[in-house]
Amino acid sequence: MSSVIQVTLPHTSYNIVIDPNSLGTIGRYLDSLQLGQKVMVISNPEIFNYYGKTVINSLKKTGFEVFSHLIPPGETYKTLDSISQVYDVALKYRLERSSTLLALGGGVIGDMTGFAAATWLRGINFVQVPTSLLAMVDASIGGKTGVNHPQGKNLIGAFYQPRLVFIDPMVLKTLPVREFRAGMAEVIKYGVIWNQDLFNQLEAQKNLDSLDNINLEILQEIIKKSCQAKVDVVNQDEKEAGLRAILNYGHTIGHAIESLTGYSQINHGEAVAIGMVAAGKIAVKSGMWTKEMSQRQDDLIKKAALPESIDKSLKSQKIIETLQLDKKVKAGKVRFILPTNIGKVDIKEEIPSEVINTVLEEMKRT
Question: For domain 177-365, which architecture applies?
Answer without folding.
Answer: Up-down Bundle (1.20)
